[in-house]
Design brief:
The chain is mostly beta strands and about 120 residues long. It has one domain (about 5-119). It is about 15% helix and about 50% strand. The protein contains 1 helix and 8 strands; from the N terminus they run αββββββββ.
Length: about 120
């Protein structure tokens, strides 16, 4: 099983094991530009592309546990790198978890992106 498959299985268990999760209309992400050391908060509506540097980020799903459960937000994120004069290339597609950002992380030499919350 691939790492992405493990992350997807864990996402399904995390969302299903603790009661119904609330579907959200947007994800709150944070992005780190490793060159400038700047952290940016990004509000990404579902199924709409948002830009962060050379990255185009689309959140396809964002689920948050109800308040009476242990806190957890999970988002299915697709990230493309778009450079001038080139076609975009998919560099990440998978579930990201607010409580465990390293579990399914975007690996990029300049940018880090992780999920903070679902709204």
């Amino acid at each position: 099983m691939r790492v992405g498959g493990v992350a997807a299985a864990m996402a399904a268990m995390a969302v299903a094991s603790c009661g119904p999760a609330a579907a959200a209309g947007a994800a709150v992400l944070q992005g780190l530009d490793k060159i400038t050391a700047r952290i940016t908060t990004i509000k990404a509506p579902l199924d709409e592309a948002v830009r962060f540097g050379t990255l185009s980020i689309v959140v396809r799903a964002c689920n948050k546990r109800p308040p009476e459960e242990p806190p957890e937000s999970a988002a299915y994120v697709e990230v493309d790198e778009i450079r001038p004069g080139e076609q975009g290339a998919r560099i990440f597609a998978g579930w990201m978890f607010a409580s465990s950002p390293a579990l399914s992380a975007l690996e990029h030499p300049v940018y880090d992106v992780w999920v903070k919350d679902c709204e």
